[in-house]
Amino acid sequence: MENCVKKAVILSAVPKSTGFTAEMLKLIRQTAPSNIEISDVNMFYQNILPCTDCGYCLKNDACRINTDDFDTITEKVKSADIVIVLTPVYFLSLPSPLKAYFDRMQRYFSQKFIRKIPSKDFPARKKGAVAVCCGAGDSFVVEVVSKTVKMMFDCINTQLCDVFSVMNTDKLHVSDISSDENMDKLKKFWENLI
Fold first, then answer.
1. Residue 1's pLDDT is what?
2. Domain 6-193: what homologous superfamily?
3. Could you tell me the residue ranges of all domains in the chain?
4. What SS3 class is residue 146?
5. Among 12, 176, 187, which residue's Cα sits nearest to residue 97?
6. What does the DSSP assignment read for 6-64?
7. What is the pLDDT of residues 16-48, one digit of tens each?
């Protein structure tokens, strides 16, 4: 089973190509086993309209908004075996482009938890992980982001298998991310996802 090809999608919020989150994305890709095909969806470059709480998904298996990139991105998530959320922390939360995508998952939350309908969109159990960069050194920050990701994962039949974090980035240089300790953590990160 370990040798079969698996698809991973990284739902990322990488605001700039030279920052900590961009470096973390590179390391995640570099440490991935050879049997993993990775696609990255950087939410900063997607058109995701916000949930308006219109209530449409309370009665329908769809979202009323269908003029943005949500459905295209979600198709990638549906076809993946592994879902990774990669994000910096903004005020104890996700950056707004990634948060907008999570909020639109309300259609799957409504289907599963309010209408009690088994998901035909996510029938197979997926494995998931979160990778977080944060300027602060308080582990509470990572816990808050992880709970948000776990809630979204619960909507799409995905088990949160690992959390990789780099903290205190306000006091680090970008190159510090590739420490031996972090590389060991990333190796275990992938082991938990396979």
1. 46
2. Flavodoxin domain (3.40.50.360)
3. 6-193
4. helix
5. 12
6. EEEEEEE----TTSHHHHHHHHHHHHS-TTEEEEEEEGGGS--PPP---SGGGTSSS-S
7. 999 999 999 999 999 999 999 999 999 999 999
